[in-house]
Design brief:
Chain lengths: ~160, ~300
């Protein structure tokens, strides 16, 4: 089945089986390895990407469902080889230990900071309850999200999602 | 884990979806896919074809009127959670939606899908039972509707024929307050026991309670969710309670005697869940009482 999916602004066309998961389209057809498969059962969120602006678990979606959609993966967060606001915050707070959950966490950060002008720490934790970090970096991850949120709303956002 | 190969069709209308279902006995509808895809990946379900209705705009709407809110089948849990109309008119449903899964699941999962899937632990179901919701169905022979209590017929069993599709859910508005409590190990899990309760209390200065309406449903049972009709009747028959404690005592003693058979799994034994049910019904009542007094639960 022919599908055409735009990822990080670039169009990818391919003829795929209906059962090809979106995460494999991203990793193997588009060659973008930043989106990770952690559990393959829709719990851990390492496969999280933005689909038409909404965070989704790409291992729980068939690529054919995303035909014609616009996807943002972790590779699409930064522009011009500069770290994005989210990435800067994660570096500053050492929020990535092994880095496996990090792409999913960064995508959630992008979504959270743009959508909510006001958000509490508890609300941030609740919004990322679908993202697991086995290294238990949660405190630092939440610190980073809080910081990214503050920076975004103070400085205004010049980079596109 | 990959599902077996299947054919994939994208329906451009409800009637086209119905035709596609009729062409293949093994075909299943896919909307958000957040219940279907995990089951296909685990090999629990192996449909021969998927009919993708995920983009049908005709199933995506929230129509509020003075006495109800009609929600199109493809409205996502996030949209229910955040809808101003639903928050204003039937807030219980928005509260329930916010407790489903996690952000990512709520952005794809739909109310029509949840109702058609009828997982016995699904968060919406005890709430829709308490709200006396109605399910609107489209099929080859036209449209029909059923009360949710008749539509849900058992665990993963509904009154839907193979060539029918849930079109919308109608949720009547209510007087009083309502609350949904879910006991789960992690917030994003299915609940071991879910309790939904609605009450229209008139609380006097002395603390006595007049009951104009009282509804309670429990989810997570082996057979699926159900209303606790005998407890409701007892509370409504008595109509007035001198103190909140007397209402609570009556409900506590009734729930302890109720015949309830729960699922028995690794996450919680049937015995543990049965005990939880007693605790959860009282806990939900306490939250309802706080809300009735104007406090935040």
């Amino acid at each position: 089945m022919k599908v055409s999916i735009k990822i990080n602004g670039k169009q990818y066309d391919a003829d795929v089986e209906p059962r090809l998961l979106l995460v494999h389209f991203i990793r193997d057809v588009a060659g973008l390895k930043g989106t990770h498969i952690g559990c393959d059962t829709g719990h851990c969120g390492a496969c999280t990407v933005l689909l038409n602006g909404k965070p989704v678990k790409s291992c729980q979606i068939f690529a054919v469902q995303a035909d014609g959609a616009e996807i943002t993966t972790v590779e699409g967060l930064s522009q011009d080889d500069r770290l994005s606001i989210e990435q800067e915050a994660f570096v500053k707070h050492a929020a990535a230990e092994c880095g496996y959950c990090t792409p999913g966490m960064l995508i959630m950060t992008r979504y959270i900071i743009k959508k909510y002008k006001d958000i509490t720490r508890d609300e941030i934790k609740d919004k990322i309850r679908g993202n697991y970090c086995m290294c238990m970096q949660y405190q630092k991850i939440v610190d980073a999200i809080e910081d990214a949120h503050r920076v975004y709303w103070q400085k205004g956002y010049k980079q596109n999602a | 884990m990959y599902p077996k190969p299947f054919k994939y069709y994208r329906a451009s209308s409800i009637s086209e979806a119905i035709e596609m279902l009729e062409e293949d006995e093994g075909a299943k509808l896919i909307g958000g896919g957040q219940s279907l895809v995990p089951m296909m990946k685990l090999g629990i379900l192996a449909p021969s074809a998927l009919v993708d209705i995920g983009r049908l705009k005709e199933l995506k709407y929230i129509r509020a009127s003075s006495d109800s809110v009609i929600i199109g089948a493809l409205v996502t849990h996030s949209e229910v959670e955040e809808s101003g109309d639903i928050i204003e008119k039937v807030p219980l449903l928005a509260q329930a939606a916010s407790l489903i899964g996690d952000t990512q699941i709520r952005d794809m999962g739909t109310i029509g899908g949840s109702v058609a899937h009828a997982d016995p632990s699904a968060d919406y179901l005890p709430n829709l039972l308490v709200l006396n919701a109605r399910v609107y169905i489209s099929g080859r022979s036209g449209k029909r509707e059923m009360p949710i209590a008749e539509f849900i017929q058992g665990p993963f069993m509904t009154g839907l024929d193979h060539n029918e599709i849930v079109e919308s859910i109608k949720v009547p508005t209510y007087k009083g307050v309502a609350h949904y409590e879910k006991f789960s190990i992690r917030r994003q899990d299915f609940g071991l026991v879910n309790v939904s309760m609605l009450a229209d209390f008139k609380i006097s200065e002395t603390g006595s309670i007049g009951v104009n309406d009282f509804r309670v449903a429990i989810g997570g049972l082996e057979s699926g969710p159900r209303r606790l009709g005998d407890i409701e009747k007892a509370v409504l028959d008595r109509e007035k309670f001198d103190t909140f404690q007397s209402l609570k005592d009556m409900i506590r003693s009734m729930i302890e005697k109720e015949e309830l058979s729960f699922q028995d799994t690794l996450h919680g034994s049937a015995k543990y869940r049965r005990h939880l049910a007693n605790v959860m019904v009282v806990r939900t009542l306490e939250q309802v009482y706080i809300k009735a007094r104007g406090g935040v639960a």
